[in-house]
């Protein structure tokens, strides 16, 4: 169970790195505008906000990734698990905020939150029964 939870955390990490790339490097490009449903004008006006948000997503991914690495590569699994829970828990919280605050963005919030949610559940069960 623990390995499955860590793999799910790694998948959440990869997704958030992808979101970082979209928000920081591709926000005004056709792919970024299509992904986020913005016009060219909206993308230009909100570029600095997206840039900041992209780094927020990257930092969450870094915390979760370090947690996964520490969990696998050291004897200090408690620290690794804590970092994973902090990273994916924050990702899940952000997805929940998006889900509740923007009904038109609910499909995106579900995509953003499914790996973190599953990671929290599966890793939590794995740690509890270990």
From TrEMBL:
Record's signal peptide: none
Domain of life: Bacteria
Transmembrane segments: 6-27, 55-73, 79-101, 113-129
Keyword set, alphabetical order: Membrane, Transmembrane, Transmembrane helix
Keyword Transmembrane helix in annotation: yes
Pfam families (UniProt xref): DUF1304 (PF06993)
InterPro entries: DUF1304
PANTHER family in the record: BLL0914 PROTEIN
Protein name: DUF1304 domain-containing protein
């Amino acid at each position: 169970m623990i390995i499955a939870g860590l793999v799910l955390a790694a998948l959440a990490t990869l997704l958030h790195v992808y979101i970082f790339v979209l928000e920081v490097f591709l926000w005004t490009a056709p792919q970024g505008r299509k992904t986020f449903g913005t016009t060219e004008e909206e993308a230009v006006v909100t570029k600095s906000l997206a840039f900041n948000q992209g780094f927020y997503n990257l930092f969450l991914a870094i915390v979760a990734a370090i947690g996964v690495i520490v969990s696998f590569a050291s004897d200090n699994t408690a620290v690794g698990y804590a970092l994973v829970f902090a990273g994916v828990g924050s990702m899940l919280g952000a997805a929940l905020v998006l889900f509740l605050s923007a009904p038109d963005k609910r499909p995106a919030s579900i995509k953003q939150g499914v790996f973190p949610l599953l990671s929290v559940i599966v890793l939590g069960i794995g740690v509890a029964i270990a």
